[in-house]
Design a protein that fits this description.
- The structure holds two protein chains of two kinds.
- By secondary structure, chain A is α/β, with parallel strands linked by helices.
- Helices cover about 50% and strands about 15% of the residues of chain A.
- In chain A, the strands form two sheets. A six-stranded parallel β-sheet of chain A has the order 2-1-3-4-5-11, with helices on both faces. In chain A, strands 7-6-8-9-10-12 form a six-stranded mixed β-sheet, sandwiched between helices.
- Chain A is elongated.
- Chain B is built from 14 helices and four strands.
- Chain B has a two-stranded antiparallel sheet with strand order 1-4.
- In chain B, a hairpin with a 5-residue loop joins strand 2 and strand 3.
- In chain B, helix 5 packs antiparallel against helix 11 and helix 12 packs across helix 13.
- The longest helix of chain B is centred in the last third of the chain and has 27 residues.
- Chain B starts with about 35 loop residues before the first helix and ends with a helix.
- Classes of the chains: A alpha/beta, B mainly alpha.
- Chains A and B meet through helix 1, strand 2, helix 4 and helix 5 of A and helix 2, helix 3, helix 11, helix 13 and helix 14 of B.
Chain lengths: ~325, ~375
């Protein structure tokens, strides 16, 4: 009994302390009045260094890990603070993250725009506050209307078309296009593009996604088993591509496999001949370049792109250039 | 079949209000419970403690967290979460789960979007239809749980999957994409936004959903603490059979709770749809656990019969503060879930301790 009482007492003390801390914090900050001298100091030092917020719809998978590394490397190399955050494909969260960046008065916002409607209001607040915007990865059609300086990414339909054409070249007759995120319009655009480039029969398959690779693998495998006319598979994410490779093996299928985007495993699979090629949108650049561009805009009023998007892809990684890319992919920059 | 039909039965388990006359002389048989002990036995203690610590931490370590605009940011995140957490807390106190609560925010948003942009409804009739639909889904959930006597965990998991599939399938079939867009062009959008999704107090731009949240939490607290229905909710969650034996309409209370949760989801779904002027087919999936986490951090027991709406709101506030606070701090967001997990664990440990204490005293 006494022991419990001691614990409770300790809890109470923490409670009291924290309440005290809140009160103190409030004094320090003093939204209006407060101590103006201290506030000026802070603002002055802040004016000297640049802070760029990078807000994507990623969910920590290997694709976005590379883009994140690009943003962070850019920050380190040119000496600006980069705040990278992800919304895990939740548009409301992304809007809220943009709002919080505006509150912080960052010097620039780089944002992926898979659902432009959802973040339009928040981006309006940013432009109203004089914060420059660059869209990255998704949003090639909407960046101007969203008020962005430029867009850094690849055009999904064109990239999909290229992939479809290359798979046709490799001898495919019926293509399975594997969609791994329910609500990402870009993925559907890739499959639509692939359909155009492929010419033959194309079927889309919705799978569980990168959060549940095991289920995804089973889904692809049973699809291949139930329809042996499928002789080409296009994955849209490197993690999904590896699952698709195992599914092709597991189903005893001889389907040709290709993927969007790279990882160390994907490059190795290309080297080993298990995969035909990977469409590389070089997402390292999608993290890196916006940070550089926004810093240039902030410090030197430069605009890059001349009002056109800056394309980072598509490039193709095949058996020929896989060795070079392999080393870089293992370092997490490709 | 399973319950005595006795709606407004006079044998209401507990009186609505009317405190007994105060005893003039101290009775030595009654334990003297100190104010501190009574305070500590509140289900909210764990979450209040957590909220204060986290607030103090981010307030002192970041510049923007304590500004009015910063507060507007984290109350925004907490508000839609809080509305759901309060409804889910009521349901959990009543002894049931609703795993379809998250996906329902997407389903109702999509329904609103499809009704208005594809099927020619104007905004207000569509909102009415959406609420009615949600009430029906809640009723079906509740009815199935009561009739089949299966755990609500299983029944609503099924509903969850059904709607996850419907959301994507119907959206794709109707719009050929994975989202419904263009809500801002529908007649009635502006007036509906004024009620559900606009901001107030420019330039800080607090969200209207924050007001909705506070009002809903206040009503839920009043219902739980001061009304007969509130007593019924605690009773059905504590021991459904005992409650039935004293004349509580168990089935009706539980079904009403499921309907409340589904309609709260409709409210949030409508708010999000109006705010974003578009709805994604994957909206809300996975959020159901955040609601349950908020309710549990706020002192709800997984076994039912105990909890509070204020606690659930504080739980939602913690999640909101952590989300924005981490963003302000510029921490590596890879670690966000670790942070949430630790908070959940700590809050639950405190609740557990307090509950043992409270039960020990009751003997």
């Amino acid at each position: 009994m006494t022991r419990v009482r001691v614990v409770l007492l300790a809890l109470l003390m923490v409670l009291g302390l924290s309440a005290f801390a809140v009160a103190c914090g409030g004094d320090d900050d003093g939204d209006e009045g407060g101590s103006p001298a201290a506030k000026d100091d802070v603002d002055l030092t802040q004016g000297q260094d640049v802070t760029i917020a990078v807000i994507t719809h990623g969910s920590g998978d290997s694709f976005w890990a590379v883009a994140k590394k690009g943003a962070e490397d850019a920050g380190k190399q040119i000496g600006v603070t980069v705040k990278y955050s992800e919304s895990a494909n939740d548009p409301q969260k992304q809007a809220q993250l943009i709002d919080s960046a505006v509150t912080e008065k960052v010097d620039g916002i780089a944002v992926s725009a898979p659902n432009p409607d959802a973040i339009r209001d928040s981006l309006k607040k940013a432009t109203a506050a004089g914060i420059p915007i660059i869209t990255l990865n998704s949003g090639a059609e909407d960046y101007q209307e969203l008020g962005a300086i430029t867009h850094v990414g690849q055009t999904e339909t064109i990239a999909g078309e290229g992939a479809g054409a290359k798979l046709k070249e490799a001898g495919g007759k019926k293509l399975l296009c594997v969609i791994h995120e329910q609500a990402n319009i870009g993925l559907n655009q890739r499959c639509d593009g692939a359909k155009k480039g492929f010419g033959g029969e194309v079927e889309n398959l919705q799978v569980k996604g990168v959060d549940d690779i095991q289920t995804t693998l089973t889904e692809i495998q049973s699809k291949l088993q139930s329809d042996d006319a499928i002789d080409a598979v296009l994955a849209l994410n490197p993690d999904i591509a590896i699952a698709a490779r195992d599914a092709v093996k597991g189903a005893g299928s001889s389907a040709k496999l290709a993927t969007f985007d790279l990882s160390g495993d994907v490059v190795k699979a290309i080297q080993d001949g298990e995969m035909e090629f990977a469409v590389d949108q070089q997402q390292y650049l999608q993290g890196y370049l916006p940070v550089v561009f926004l810093t240039l805009y902030k410090n030197n009023a430069n605009t890059v792109g001349g009002g056109q998007p800056v394309l980072t892809g598509p490039g193709y990684v095949t058996k020929d250039n896989a060795d070079t890319v392999a080393k870089l992919a293992e370092e997490g920059t490709r | 079949m399973t319950e005595a039909i006795g709606g407004g039965s006079p044998a209401a388990a507990a009186p609505a209000g009317a405190p007994p006359a105060p005893e003039p002389v101290a009775d030595e048989r009654l334990a003297n419970i100190s104010l501190w002990a009574r305070l500590l036995r509140r289900p909210e203690v764990g979450s209040l403690l957590g909220a204060l610590v986290i607030c103090a931490f981010f307030w002192t370590t970041t510049e923007s967290f304590g500004t009015l605009s910063g507060i507007a940011n984290w109350t925004d995140v907490a508000s839609t979460l809080g509305i759901m957490a309060v409804a889910v807390a009521l349901l959990m106190i009543g002894g049931e789960f609703d795993l379809s609560a998250g996906v329902m925010t997407g389903t109702t948003g999509l329904l609103l979007g499809l009704l208005t942009t594809e099927w020619g409804f104007s905004m207000w009739p569509a909102i009415v239809v959406t609420f009615a639909f949600a009430a029906l889904v809640g009723f079906i959930n509740g009815y199935m749980v009561i009739k089949t006597r299966l755990p609500s965990f299983i029944v609503t998991l099924a509903t969850f999957f059904v709607f996850q599939g419907l959301n994507l399938g119907v959206t794709k079939a109707v719009t050929d994409t994975v989202r419904v867009a263009g809500l801002s062009d529908v007649s009635g959008y502006d007036s509906a936004s004024k009620l559900f999704s606009n901001t107030f107090w420019s330039p800080h731009n607090f969200r209207l959903s924050v007001v909705w949240w506070i009002v809903i939490a206040a009503i839920a607290t009043w219902v739980l603490a001061r009304t007969r229905v509130g007593n019924w909710i605690f009773a059905v969650g504590g021991d459904a059979n005992a409650a039935r034996n004293v004349g509580v309409p168990v089935a009706r209370v539980k079904i009403a709770l499921f309907m409340t949760t589904a309609m709260a989801a409709a409210l949030v779904g409508i708010m999000v749809a109006l705010r974003l002027a578009s709805v994604q087919a994957g909206q809300g999936v996975g959020e159901e656990f955040t609601y349950i986490i908020a309710a549990v951090v706020g002192g709800c027991l997984l076994t039912g019969g105990y909890g509070s709406a204020i606690g659930a709101s504080l739980g939602a506030l913690i999640v909101g503060m952590a989300f924005i606070g981490i963003s302000f701090s510029g921490w590596n967001t890879d670690w966000r879930f670790l942070f949430l997990g630790v908070i959940l664990l700590l809050a639950v440990l405190v609740n557990n301790l307090v509950r043992h204490r409270a039960e020990g005293a009751r003997r």
